[in-house]
Structure to design on (226 residues):
């Protein structure tokens, strides 16, 4: 059974750096073809893809946010970490992590974590 | 950057067929997925590779794609199908792209 869970701060101040952790079980990020992605959703708005990290440590970022994002993995801990720098109130959103493969993208999602950016 | 366009809303009567479109340049050349999201819940994959249903997804959900448009069809729509639906595809330049979402209301 695949499960994922996001963790991190619920409130960050403008200009601060956000660090989110996705802890998963039921699969290994060292298995060929497997990746983990981050997606966010501002309140009442659409889903927005942020980043992907692959089993071979390849990484992909949303072009519009690439300069602010870093995604890393710790295979031994079954964790993926996303950092986003220079947070702004418009970054207020629920942040999700999800299991991903090339043929079946985002088939398992975490419950999401709401991050509010406010001074 | 690549974009996917969906109608903001679709209304359907119980038992009828709901069709949700998703348009993008040469979308038929890409695999399209569809996600259902109910209020307060995480999205759930309902269609992948244009027309395949994950285990546990009812047969009333089907998908197709051709040219610049992909379509999610809900046959015999039930009240439980109300929610937001998002299409998604991969673009080599933009990465994973989601549509703007369509709110399905069962009247």
């Amino acid at each position: 059974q695949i499960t994922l869970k996001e963790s991190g701060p619920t409130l960050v101040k403008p200009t601060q750096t956000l660090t989110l952790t996705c802890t998963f079980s039921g699969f290994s990020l060292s298995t060929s073809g497997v990746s983990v992605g981050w997606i966010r959703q501002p309140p009442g708005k659409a889903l927005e893809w942020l980043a992907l990290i692959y089993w071979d440590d390849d990484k992909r970022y949303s072009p519009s946010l690439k300069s602010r994002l870093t995604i890393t993995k710790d295979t031994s801990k079954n964790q993926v970490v996303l950092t986003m720098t220079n947070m702004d109130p418009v970054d207020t959103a629920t942040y999700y992590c999800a299991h991903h493969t090339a043929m079946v993208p985002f088939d398992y999602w975490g419950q999401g974590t709401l991050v509010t950016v406010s001074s | 950057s690549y974009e996917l366009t969906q109608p903001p809303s679709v209304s359907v009567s119980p038992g009828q067929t709901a069709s949700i479109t998703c348009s993008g340049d040469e979308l038929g050349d890409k695999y399209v997925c569809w996600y259902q999201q109910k209020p307060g819940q995480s999205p759930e994959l309902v269609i992948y590779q244009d027309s395949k249903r994950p285990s546990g997804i009812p047969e009333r959900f089907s998908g197709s794609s051709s040219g610049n448009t992909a379509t999610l069809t809900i046959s015999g729509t039930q009240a439980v199908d109300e929610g937001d639906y998002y299409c998604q595809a991969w673009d080599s330049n933009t990465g994973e792209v989601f549509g703007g979402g369509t709110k399905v209301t069962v009247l």
